[in-house]
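Troubleshooting: if your tokenizer reports a length mismatch, compare against these two reference records.
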Amino acid sequence: MSEVFKSVKDVDVQTIKWIDARFSLQDVKAGRKNYEKGHIKGALYWDLEADLSDMSKKTGRHPLPDKETLTALFRKSGLELHDRIIIYDDGGSPFAARAWWILQYGGFKNSIISLEGYEELVAIGIPTSDDEEVAEQSNVDPVWDETIYAPREFVEKTVEGGTGNVLLDARSAERYRGEVEPIDRIAGHIPGARNFDWEQLKKDGSFNLHDEVGKRLSQVVTHDDDVVVYCGSGVTAAPLFAMLKQNGFENVKLYVGSYSDWISRETIEVEKG
């Protein structure tokens, strides 16, 4: 089993670099405001929309920034490839997982997601600050891991049967089946996709690392499958990607554009039911 989610109680935090990824899809300024009120001492703030997405692109609701932009973020954050990095959010949220996936994509393989949210970290005594943190800039050159990234063209080939991959939709069963669609203009799912609601990864508001989650995942995909995960905008698919890796699924990719990108073109195919 890979260590992706980890309790900070089991970590020597003296040698850690921290990233605060708190965010709210309902109030996009809330994460930054909460960071300014208080954060883990030394933590830098990565905003879902300002740092971890390129909102000027039309390839879905939270498109991936280009490599030059991500490189600038890594360097501004003072990161080196060997750094031990912990990312946290409010706990049980998808935002730390999004930041973690981007770090994995950039080659920062010593990064983990805190099992505890910010308030829990405070409660166990991790030092906090309300100062604006500024890192000493690095000159890091990312080592891009293309094996975990699925562009739209790869997904199109997968739908056509040309890659042998399994598509796994992280949205609710109702949205997957096309019974309700509160956000996107067309209801349904990418043809051939299976479904595993990312909310099933949690118990009592925290990510569940017990064997029951791995067993549930294994009922939908096998460890021999090559899996491509997606959701509505690429955000809630990130914790599903992370939990698959946590449970020993080796070959997993993330379609960052996800369903909102899939339906962005005039000629599309979707399934319902």
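Reference record two:
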Amino acid sequence: MDTPETMRAVRIAGHGGPEVLERAEVAVPAPQAGEVLVRVAAVALNNTDLWTREGAYGRPDDPKALSGWRGPIGFPRIQGADVAGRVVAVGPDVDGGLAGRRVVVDPAIYDTEGPDANPVGLMGSERDGGYAEYVTAPAARVHDVTDSPLTDDQLATLPTAYGTALGMIERGRLREGETVLVSGASGGVGIALIQIARARGARVLAISSGSKTDAVREAGAHEVLDRARDIAGQLRAAAPDGIDVALDVVAGELVGDGLPLLREGGRWVVAGALGGYDVAFDVRRLYLHNAQVIGSAMHTPTHFALLMDLARRGEIQPVVAAAYPLDRAAEAQEELARRAHVGKIVLRP
């Protein structure tokens, strides 16, 4: 299959607001040894796109430092972690049978080759991503989903949001019959958490705002708590015996308010800080009740393989809130930042 020499892309040349997203005509990358070239059908937006662009991650030695996901970014950088598309070329040492296959790319850059490796980098941050017509990826990170009933837009929503959700659920050891609290329930990760937790047989309590309540309930939440009211009071009423697992992308005051509501041996899993990264809680509620606070960044290769099995069988139904053409990436990011939508926003190169 012939590929052009150049392609349209949207990239950032430095940290800043939506204005730093620039359209560019760049060379189509050549797949190196062990890599494939994917023609991008859809790329989903994530909060990490906003925070990487803004440099909002801080560094261990300086929480306020401008930084990418795991350190300084190499500019210019093409953003976009979540890619669905087709393999159009393979590099040396790659099975030629992958050519023409419909795929989803695991965007994580791992610390080792093992099945339980930790992500230490991300496509669109530590290497160029999918805000472009083509992107390269390691062949080992490309998953064949040719037979999935999901659309390209739906497949593109999976890697970061559903990967993060599955990582949280696995690390939190959520079991059938347990009661789970989901914060930020109307966002991409929140909807994914509800769907996967519900499929596992958990009772799902979700925190959202009034206008999004119906959509969150439709995603599978058993009860929806209004984030504008007393969360702890609503939680006590909905789960008088406490909750087993909290799946939290908000953090902030919610951790201190909610930790006393965990049952014995409960787990509080944090994968975001939409409500603030500076957290205070009564440590006695932790050690006296054998509770655990667990940090969860994305997924492992094992988690991602489980997710792709769900996608092939169509056992999850991602919600696509809106789709934009590639050249309106800045507008799409602004819509994402407003948080008025339910589900995921995608770009179509």
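Descriptive notes for reference record two:
- The chain has two domains: 6-158+299-348, 173-295.
- The chain has ten helices and 18 strands.
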